[in-house]
Amino acid sequence: MNTLNRKALLAFALITALIVSTMTMTVTPATAGKLQKQLVAESAIDKVIRRGVLRVGMDTFLPWAMKDKKGELVGFEIDVARRLAADMGVKVEFVPTKWAGIIPALLTGKFDVVIGGMGIQTKRALKVNFSIPYDYSGMAIVAHKEKAAGFTSLEAFNKADVEIACKLGTTAVTAVKKYIPKATLRLFDDEAQAYQELRNGNVHAVVGSAPRPAYEAIKYPDTMFLPLDSSFTKEPIGFAVRKGDFDTLTFFNNWITIVSHEGWLEERHHYWFGTKEWAHLVE
């Protein structure tokens, strides 16, 4: 997409946001000017345009966001954030943040938006506003061949003496509590630590966002296996923004709609989740 088209995209989204705002609010002429100035002053989009930089909060999850051999960030979310910034005509700045603290960091202004594979959940939506889904994910489970030998269902893992590793603050924790409530949870700040515990035989399984569990089973076939044929949950993924910023949320929704209709999101999803063409970048 050339620069002209990107500017047109941004203009279209901002104009739509303004029209929708006007249609959904009743204000007197005396207060219209004051209200408009207040909305502009509080809009993250306006601040991003003036700053020339979109600050994106994220954490590392394979293949959502990860560092390549050169130490550069790559992944599905990285592609999404870079395309979004390019369409806005600004630079992108990634702000790596521990997942357990990413919502508080957003609320205190450490960055403008979370683009990090965040599942849209009711509990989270009480604290932040979510865009419409731009992708869907699901929880999968990968197990240790010896410790979980013969386990072929979630119920087999649903025992107090079974240890399940997850990344702290993720929807994997929610999934385990819902579908394997009797299992003992082992929580880690870093997803890589959870998988290392599994390779070392210290836990029975890891629950995490697909497709990483499958990748781990393929990479370490002597120690890991997939007890289930597919993911056992499905969840919508959205951008997270601070509450009260209607223009920013509307712009993001418009952008997602546009690039979805282009087929670009589907193409990037297939590359990162449906192939291993990118494996040489990180292995």
Description:
This protein has about 280 residues and is an alpha/beta fold. It folds into 2 domains: about 5-135 and about 235-280, D-Maltodextrin-Binding Protein, domain 2 (3-Layer(aba) Sandwich), CATH 3.40.190; about 140-225, Periplasmic binding protein-like II (D-Maltodextrin-Binding Protein, domain 2), CATH 3.40.190.10. The chain is about 45% helix and about 20% strand. It contains 13 helices and 14 strands. The strands form 5 sheets. The chain has a 5-stranded mixed sheet with strand order 10-9-11-8-12. The longest helix is centred in the N-terminal third of the chain and has 22 residues, at about 5-25. The chain starts with a helix and ends with a helix. The model is unreliable at about 20-25 (pLDDT under 50).
What's the gist of this structure?
Its main location: other. By secondary structure, the protein is α/β, with parallel strands linked by helices.
- The residue ranges in which pLDDT falls below 50 over 5 or more consecutive positions are 18-25
CATH topology of the largest domain: D-Maltodextrin-Binding Protein, domain 2
Mean pLDDT: 88
Number of strands: 14
Helix/strand class: alpha/beta
Q: Helical segment tally?
A: 13
Multimerization status: single chain
CATH fourth-tier homologous superfamily of the largest domain:
Periplasmic binding protein-like II
Label the CATH architecture of the largest domain.
3-Layer(aba) Sandwich
What is the CA–CA distance across the termini? Answer: 31 Å
Q: What's the CATH first level of the largest domain?
A: Alpha Beta
Keywords: Signal
Main location: other
Protein name: Transporter substrate-binding domain-containing protein
Family: Belongs to the bacterial solute-binding protein 3 family.
